Amino acid sequence: xxxxxxxxxxxxxxxxxQHALAFVAxxxxxxxxxxxxxxxxxxxxxxxxxxxxxxxxxxxxPELVEGVWKDGKLxxxxxVGEIKEYQISVTAGTMYFIWWDDSDNTNDRSKxxxxxxxxxxxxxxxxxxxxxxxxxxxxxxxxxxxxDTVIVSVWGYRQYSHSSWPTGTYAxxxxxxxxxxxxxxxxxxxxxxxxxxxxxxxxxxVTSGTTYFIWWDDSDNTNNLSKxxxxxxxxxxxxxxxxxxxxxxxxxxxxxxxxxxxxDTVIVSVQGYRQNSYSSSWPTGSYAxxxxxxxxxxxxxxxxxxxxxxxADSxxxxxxxxVQSGSTYYLWWNDSGQGDTLKxxxxxxxxxxxNGTVIFTNVDSGWTTPRSFTPASxDTVIVSVQGYRRYNSDPWPTGTYAxxxxxTNNKP
Length: 412
What we know:
The chain is mainly beta. The chain is built from one helix and 30 strands.
């Protein structure tokens, strides 16, 4: 028989930390059953110098390959059980998932042994998770903070300490997910949540003064009902961690809007939505996220209607045009409150000179009667358009409108 650790004692995986088999031996030294650390069905990996299968500080265990199932078999049953161990080389900042297929949680019912799995860091023995029974529907997730080796331990599951050790087949594997994925403008990034507490992050560069919109498609707010996970989304600036918005549940009908005051990078975080953090399970499934932009201030020309829309809460669209001293200008707009009945958003309009001097503020109607003004000096006029709310408690309206200026009192 290959050299390994023989433990004598009653063994209950529910209460026994497996981050180091030496510790297991100490815990179980008074018991009457046996458990052996053996990878004999994986081939000869050299003499095991310690209980963990480590010789001269080198891990002597089968290496798991990303995305590839590693079949295993436990053969020592009855009063004698065994532990099979595997190693994974991990990189700081990468998201890792450990999966296993056994008789209790399987796709095709091809496995015959019910197992529990633990994982620990090799460098210091810190436990990642301990004695977990199920890993098929939801893998175990971890993100190392430094490059290391992870030891994965597998052994048979016993409901009671006096039960016989089970034998049979199982399989184990690991997969990875980028900790942070770069987004491209106006391109949906399809992704999934597959584990409890999983947070997927995305990033994109932002430019001062540009307006950005963050959208997401999930099971709660979707166009074609193709997504299966209900998510919440947060965003923050990378440079200082200042939050842009936090744990927003809906982003399909109305995106989240922000306008940075300096060039930076924005980090978007996506996590499953739980209505009750104490009793609700973590949701899993598919979703998608993207960002779009709009020019912060659009130059408009005389007699040409600028068709535009409001799509987000608190959105303000701005336009500008040059004016000459002593000339009279007329501002018109077409919206759902007063217009040609084709527009869907009721808006208010304001105008100011480049130095901030107000021409008019929050005027609701400009279809039948335009707002006129005559500048005392040549300048640039800035026109602001925002959705109209009668009360502050009213929801922000969205939809379409149009705005134009003329130099005569004739609507184009």
